[in-house]
Amino acid sequence: MATRQLAYDQSSNTYGKSYDVFLSFKREDTGKNFTNHLSTALNQAGFRTFEGGDDNKSRREEDINSELSKAIQDSKMCIIVFSQNYASSSWCLDQLVSILEKKMKFACMILPIFYHVDPSNLRKHKGSFGEALNRHEEKFKCERVHENTEKEYWEDKLKKWKDALSQAADLAGMVLENQHESTFIKKIINVISTRLSRPALYIASCSIGIHRRARPINSWVQTDVSNNSNIEVLLVCGIGGIGKTTLAKFVYNLNFGYFEISCFLANIRETSKLPNGLITLQKQLLSILRKNEKVKISSVDEGIIKIRNALCYRKVLLVLDDVDEPDLVEAIFDMKDWFGFGSKIIVTTRHKSLLRPQLVHEVHEVGILYTIEANELFNFHAFGHENNQISKDYYKEYLEEVIEWCRGLPLALQVIGSSLAGKSKNVWRSAIEKLREIPTNKIVDKLRLSYELLEDDHDQNLFLHLCCFFVGMKKDFVVRILDKCDFYTLVGIQNLIDRSLVTIDEYVNDIRMHQLVRDMGRDIVRREATVDSGKRSRLWHHTDSYNVLRGKTGTEAVQGMVLDMRMIPLIPLRQSQIGFFTAWSSKLGNFSLQDHVRTDAFEKMHKLKFLQFNKVQVNGSYKNFPKGLRWLCWSGFPEECIPNEFPMENVVSIDMRYSSLKQLWNGYKFLQYLEILDLSHSYELITTPDFSGLPNLEKLILEHCTKLINVHNTIGCLQKLMILSLKDCQKLKSLPDSICELKSLETLNISGCSNIVYLPTELDKLTSLKELYADGISMINLEAQTWYSSLWAWAWKGSGPLLSPKIHFPKSLHVLNIAKCNLSPDAFNKVDLGIMTLLHWLDLGGNPINDLPDSIKNLTRLKTLNIAYCTKIKYLEGVPSNVTDVNADGCISLEKVGSCAKGHPVEGYINCINLVEVEGVFKLEPLENVDPQVLANNMGISNLETIMKSTMVSLVFGRVYNAERLRNEYPGFVQDDITSLFSLSPKKLPPQILYHRGVFSTFLPGESVPNWFSYKFTDAAEVYCTLPNNLNSHRTINGLSICFVYKCPEPYTNVGLYDGPAIWLRNQTKDLNWALYPAWFGLPEDDQTGIMWLSYWKVNNLFEQGDIIEVMGSPQFAEFKELGVKIFYIDEQIENYESNDPFEDILRNDFSDEERTYYICT
Questions:
Q1: How many angstroms separate the Cα of 297 from the Cα of each of 276, 280, 418?
Q2: Measured between alpha carbons, how far is 205 from 222 in angstroms, rounded to an integer?
Q3: Cα 956 to Cα 992: distance, rounded to the nearest angstrom
Q4: DSSP per-residue codes, 229-249
Q5: Which of 107, 227, 1023, 1102 is most buried (CB neighbours < 10 A)?
Q6: How far apart (Å, rounded) are the C-alpha atoms in residues 903 and 887?
Q7: Secondary structure (H, E, C), 477-490
Q8: Domains along the chain?
Q9: Which residue has the higher pLDDT, 764 or 324?
Q10: Angle at which helices 300-311 and 327-334 cross, to 10°
Q11: Mean pLDDT over all residues of the chain?
């Protein structure tokens, strides 16, 4: 069934309109038969009808437009009769556009009638509709494109017509199929009677974005039942204020006329709380089923029986709004056999898991408004119907911030917009400042309901912890911390997800939460003590935390605290009075907390579990510091060593990035719960602690500790360690041998450790290792000892003479990065990659290797291969067929890529300035290799021998970054290589043939399109033409030749990837598009001469006589001169010739509806 997108009169369905029905039709098609009979039937049924046929063309257009607009405005319903020739009438198409443009503004319903036409032909502009549009388009182009303004007008009109037809195809309509017209008309009258007799539910007049957001729900309602049940159930869920009820009403109004019984039960949650609430709901439903008959029900069981009997297998649309308990829905499931086939039930709820999985149903989560929709909705409520641009400009400095704060929540946009309407700038500024601290009650109360409906205080407390401390953090980390705080975190988070209070980012696994939901949770905590912050359970606001610490007002209630001194705007230096003024400083760097925050400020906070500090200086003894800490996050910790009395016995995670530590602690410490230790960017750290007292440590992160010299040999005691990162520890000299004892280690990162001189010789014992990052290790330092006798003898088991061992890596590896290691070709040829059968990601970039080892063929699971900036590789061969991503950027010596190295056709070979062939993608070779007859027949080149002797062409590789951009985006690229890359002049070569998929091209000096081209254009780079419809209709189009002439008024300098010329070819009739960005292109000799780009396109059966085609030459850096097109038929071309084109059958012709453009490029 087509998607219904009806508009409807919300204020009155029966009064205030001059007409019941507006009838649009093509009179020549149906005016004397079907439409005439329909109009008569409408009038006989008592419906006042306005006929808007196309027979009034003789009257003034202004009068007709005025009358038409008024008739549409004054009609309750518009009926459009789509017949075979409807689209041939510009009058009918203008009517259609007017109806659709005014349907929302004037709230009328629309019923399309598809009279012997397929709705898909309207949607896809095919059949008679496509032909009619093509005729209109050709007429516009031939007659009305002389003035730019007039051209734009007709192009816009044509676009409106096409869009209107596509939209109309998605309206719920009625199709005449294999039935008598009289029967069909009776059905139409019944539908109209039903729609105009049932009152639509009220929806606010400004429902921005409702069509887009309702589309998936509406589509579900209209989809035929797909299971064995008579009914289908859809849960429409989301946070409060997101618009669930409004969407349900909208979809109900669109569809109630298509069901025998339609019922919308509102406010079920509130009603069910009342005495006998469920019985009240049963009475409402039963009354509708019995056509408003007054009913009596004394018990729930009795109600179920009566409802079941009243259903009588009728097709029902039932909307249950605001449901929080499953009882009513499950009772309906029990009556499923009594519903008629095709019945639909929509349930709006805040609880995504309201129903048991065994009860077959679908779930749709309502999303927020798009930014443009949010702006429109807020502006409507803040500035009224007029949406005055002057007012918006006046408040511009505040508009963006307040709309951003609302984060696309319709309720917030409505409430805040209405509250600011007509207010001064000062009030706007004050309101925004208040919103940052205290959200509006009306919004909070709506959102808070979801919190109050949580099952128990466990989930409520978990939610408040997440709101205050953990939004944006990794789910795994949050679970790790909160599980140690006696939470059942995983099930709790799932409950919050079901209530739409929390989401998990599917890509990075972060905890996400709508900002207003987060603010609602924080407001709940704020209301615990609105005046004394120290009595709150959680202190997330930096200023509150600072004041509590400075005033020493913290209490036992405090469970967590956040303080980032960079977020404190004004901090007193001294309180010396100068008249009525006090001296203040806003520069944090001039202030020390020595006199303001001391350790005794924490003495009463016995329940403190989460401490998140940044740049905080705390003085005093830690003897009485809270001992229940689970998460210690102190970025910029100011001490050189953690004091011995600091209580850490219960800590699960220590995060002291950017600290001043030189060593973590003195001596031995036993921390049985510690699982994560992160000291990244502690630039003064010299050594690591004794690890023997950390039996449960799983992650050790020491990245960018630039003064770290060695790692304590007790690291081998960490039998649960899974991740060890020493990235960019530039002074690290060695790894201890005990590291080989880490049986659980999965990730080892020593990237950038450029001064390592020793690595253990038995790293092959790391049998769990999956990821090894060793890029940037200096081979000069390792060559004497490590590289040849340890790392490269990693798993050497006597496979050859000791002087020339095979190089092995652990078989368990999934990821291996040995980029920028200065690997010599000799050393690399000894690498046995074949044993790493689990490897799926391999990075060899930046090494001076000549080719890949044969063993790479055995990597059957490899997906990604990076050889970027391997500037000595000439041929890329032997890459396994399973590899889907090859990055060869900057391989300036690369000439040929084998067929197995697929890579990305554009992004995989940037700056490969000598690349002449990527097998299966493109190939550049001398023009003389092509059969002369092929060139003569398809490209008009008849003097090949003369051309080859006398002509030289300047060719440029078309995928090159400019030098400045390359330095910024690829800083690892060697400076000498950059210089050589951009100091090269264009290649001076004899004429070449360039094969792309289904297209072959050549670039020759030339000033104009040859005379043998059928079409020639000199005034526009974008042309349209209709393929001739010859009397000899059996002729088949085989190809097109395109000639594009351009010149360079200024010296060529590349500025980006798509810097060269391009040709766009479009078959408008079939909506097929090709874009050719050549791998190589020609440059004129000077600013006075031109280049002629000749190309032949093998279109085969994709073009037919009568098709309208568009050809566009895009010169980019150059100046357009001329464009020519010639059509070739199969019977005109040479048969049975031997072609050297390696891609003659590759031109793609399997276009889908979603992807109609094919990019032919490298």
A1: 10, 9, 44
A2: 25
A3: 12
A4: SSEEEEEEE--TTS-HHHHHH
A5: 107
A6: 7
A7: HHHHHHHCCCCCHH
A8: 19-196 (3.40.50.10140), 208-365 (3.40.50.300), 371-437 (no CATH), 438-527 (1.10.10), 922-952+990-1161 (no CATH)
A9: 324
A10: 50
A11: 82
195-204, 555-564, 607-616, 792-801: which range is least confident on average? Answer: 792-801
Determine the angle formed by the axes of helices 210-222 and 244-255, rounding to 10 degrees: 50
Q: Which residues contact 664 (CB under 8 A, 6 or more apart)?
A: 641, 642, 677, 679, 685, 688, 689
User: Across 183-192, 225-234, 617-626, which has the greatest mean pLDDT?
Assistant: 617-626
Tell me the angle at which helices 181-197 and 34-44 cross, rounded to the nearest 10 degrees: 40
- Copy the structure tokens of residue 755: 């001064």
- Tokens encoding 134: 């093509």
Please, which pLDDT band fits residue 150 given cuts at 50, 70 and 90? low
Which whole number is the average pLDDT over 146-157? 68
| Nearest-10 Cα torsion for 88, 94, 95, 101 | 140
Distance between the two ends of the chain, CA-based, in angstroms? 42
Q: What is the DSSP letter of 896?
A: E
Q: What angle do CA 950, 954, 956 make, to 5 degrees?
A: 150
Closest of 111, 84, 88, 89 to residue 99, by C-alpha:
111
Strand 917-918 with 922-926, pairing: antiparallel
Spatial distance between the Cα atoms of 360 and 460, rounded to a whole number of angstroms: 29
Residue 511, classed as helix, strand or coil, is strand
To which H or E segment does residue 1119 belong? strand 1119-1129
Backbone angles phi, psi at 452, to 5 degrees: -70, -25
Name the pTM for this structure: 0.76
Please say whether the beta carbons of 705 and 729 come within 8 A.
yes
Do 765 and 789 contact (CB within 8 A), yes or no?
Answer: no
Q: Is the dihedral of CA 537, 541, 545, 548 positive or negative?
A: negative
| 838 pLDDT above the threshold of 70 | yes
Query: Are 491 and 545 in contact, with CB atoms under 8 Å apart?
Result: no
Neighbours of 349 (CB within 10 A): 28
Backbone angles phi, psi at 331, to 5 degrees: -65, -35
The predicted pLDDT at position 577 comes to 35
Question: Could you give the CA distance from residue 332 to residue 339 in angstroms, rounded to a whole number?
Answer: 9
Tokens of 25: 């039709």
| Alpha-carbon distances, residue 508 vs 425, 472, 473, 512, 518 (angstroms) | 41, 10, 10, 11, 20
Higher pLDDT among residues 338 and 479, named by residue: 479
For residue 592, give the DSSP letter.
-
Name the pLDDT band for 90 (thresholds 50, 70, 90): confident
Rounded distance between C-alpha atoms, residue 1132 and residue 464, angstroms: 78
Q: Please enumerate in sequence order all residues whose Cβ is within 8 A of that of 828, keeping only pairs 6 or more positions apart, or say none.
A: 844, 847, 849, 853
Instruction: Return phi, psi of residue 1128, to 5°.
Output: -120, 135
